[in-house]
Amino acid sequence: MHTQSATTGSAEDGEFYFMSSHRSLKAGGVHARIHTPARGALDLDSAFSREVAEAFARARADGIASPVLMGAIPFDIDQPSELFIPARHAFFDRQERLQAAAQRAGDGGKVVGSRSIPDEQGFKAAVSQAIEQFSHGEIRKAVLSRVLEVDFDRPVSADRVFDAVCAQNPNGYQFQLPLADGGRLVGVSPELLLQKEGARVRTFPLAGSAKRQNDPSADAAASAKLLDSSKDHYEHSLVIDDIQSVLGPYCAELSIPSAPSLLGTRAMWHLGSQIDGVLSDASLPILQLACRLHPTPAICGFPTLASRQLIREIEPFERGVFSGIVGWCDEHGNGEWAVTIRCATVADTRVRLFAGAGIVAASTPESEWAETQAKLGTMLGAFGLSGQEAAA
């Protein structure tokens, strides 16, 4: 068992959030942490599932009414989880927090160093290597990513970064959560992995992207080009087919759009498909379903096992919580989990940002590098930086 009682410390002080248009959760303090890998979430009789149930029971016994589980599950669910039961929590109106954030946003700080892992040459070489693999095996898509580390001249305030994230990105799934190493995970994901309320479930996968443009006519042209892109539609179809194959057996009803629609964020256009379903068994917990869906081809590739192995061989770092899932659930198996993209970890003077791109046979190294640059723009903006400033 890896559950730990909370100890007093800066990482566990302050306020934590997961906010969406569906429900928004504010929490404080850490009653207990769960580090056990979430692989066991697939089995209701596993050590992980028993541990979660026991943590809920202890929270109730200690006087926490209707406890919730919050946090993040890594990209690799065999790695330790970053889950916790907060000491106190409440659901609230997201608009109140967004308005307050707009008044407080801004952090400043001078960049004293930065590095991309891998660098531009290394990332482009990895894209070429992946494309070469497609012609020799079963892999049809692989999502390759990179980390941008930025060092500042003074400690970075995660609270201020979160304010800026909310002020600049009022839509999507905003989160600020404590990590076991003392840092914070901060971000705003555009992508819903799974929402569950009773028997009703919803997912909104994104695959296929284009950078937003400052000029309105150029921006409209970029969105139209994406909507007409056979490469991006193919990439999107791989994700939809995979989600249908996973969720279908558990649903009495499953509604999938015939074609994706456009979803716009501050930095990007995406192809997205809202999928709604009704479970055959309403008691099925969201964590079990979420861990069956995760990782989707949107952040891993297709087929999953082969693309994950290729990622292990090519990427020169461990993703950790990046491109995992982030959210919350209650004792009744309801909740909401988003894909952990457009995010950063904040630890003292260092922040780590993450971006990935879906590689298919029609990809080019130059365009995929440009896509990661564009995706980094969301979190760079929260630090008051441009891509050029972060690379200085």
UniProtKB/TrEMBL annotation:
Highest taxon in the source lineage: Bacteria
Entry's transmembrane regions: none
Keywords: Isomerase
InterPro entries assigned: ADC_synthase, Chorismate_C, IsoChor_synthase
Enzyme class: isomerase
Catalytic activity: chorismate = isochorismate
Domain called Chorismate-utilising enzyme C-terminal: residue spans: 120-375
E.C. designation(s): 5.4.4.2
Family: Belongs to the isochorismate synthase family.
Protein name listed in UniProt: isochorismate synthase
Native organism: Pseudogulbenkiania ferrooxidans EGD-HP2
